[in-house]
Write a structure and sequence with these properties.
Helices cover about 25% and strands about 25% of the residues. It is α+β, with helices and mostly antiparallel strands and about 260 residues long. The strands form 3 sheets. It has a 6-stranded mixed sheet with strand order 3-4-2-1-14-13. Strands 5-6-7-8-12-9 form a 6-stranded mixed sheet. It has a two-stranded antiparallel sheet with strand order 10-11. Helix 3 packs parallel to helix 4 (about 170-180). It is globular, with a radius of gyration of 17 Å.
Length: about 260
């Protein structure tokens, strides 16, 4: 059972890439971020023809999240309960018995800015909600564009992306560690210890060709799923396409229960 995450950076532009990737990679379920579509324009019919049910929460031009599944997503939750926020950044659903929580984490703009403070509040609200969700749904995958590189191995240049820089700052990393402390595990790090594999590359400065990237797209598995996590990785191929998203899909493979 492959479960993946992909920030498509506009589903309107990247739908052909997504349909081809779904055919080639054949994931069981996918969380999408930055769909940038109002719900009325979400391409549910095209995805159904490709074999995927979909649930989504979108808005024009910005943000937007969705979950696609070979089986119909159940018990859908959009947004963070109790957290007043108009931005469409969170959707959760159960697919094939696995609770999937799809997050498009706030970027934060710059350390110390109002958007940075909002990011920290947002992460605290998500973590508090996930604590309760894990009691209801022990078998959980939390995935998405986290806009946080977990440690120095996850940035191409630690002297640039240091603990005082956005996406790698100390407070952001501490917030991520508090989330992991709930009983979640970075699936990629269960199988890979070394540096140098990334999921996001800037469009500028030939960053992808030079591998000047960050690993900010994560798949986290709960304690109850850790023993079933047989593989995890990042699929660079879609980033090589014409007019690609600046992100590549991150994925985790789960063995069958029992």
């Amino acid at each position: 059972m492959k479960i993946a995450s992909w920030n498509v950076n506009s589903l309107n532009v990247r739908l052909p890439h997504l349909l081809q990737w779904l055919q080639d990679a054949a994931p069981f379920a996918v969380g999408l971020q930055e769909t940038k579509l109002v719900d009325e324009r979400f391409p549910a019919e095209a995805l159904a023809e490709a074999g995927y049910h979909s649930v989504f929460s979108g808005q024009k031009t910005y943000n937007g999240v969705a979950i696609l599944g070979r089986e119909a997503p159940l018990d859908v939750q959009a947004g963070i309960p109790g957290f007043d926020d108009d931005q469409k950044r969170v959707i959760a659903a159960t697919v094939g018995g696995i609770r999937i929580v799809n997050l498009y984490v706030v970027n934060g703009q710059s350390v110390g800015s109002d958007k940075y403070e909002y990011k920290l509040r947002w992460l605290a609200a998500v973590t508090a909600w996930l604590e309760a969700e894990l009691r209801r749904y022990p078998e959980m995958v939390v995935l998405g564009d986290f806009n946080i590189a977990p440690d120095e191995r996850d940035v191409h240049d630690p002297e640039v992306w240091h603990e005082g820089h956005i996406l790698s700052s100390a407070l952001e990393r501490e917030a991520l560690q508090r989330m992991l402390a709930l009983g979640l595990h970075d699936a990629y790090r269960l199988h890979h210890e070394g540096p140098g594999e990334f999921s996001w590359w800037d469009y500028r400065q030939a960053a992808f060709r030079r591998n000047l990237g960050l690993r900010i797209d994560l798949t986290l598995v709960s304690d109850a799923l850790r023993a079933r996590c047989t593989a995890a990785g990042i699929d660079r191929e879609p980033r090589t396409l014409d007019r690609p998203s600046d992100h590549a899909p991150a994925w985790v493979e789960l063995a069958p229960a029992g």
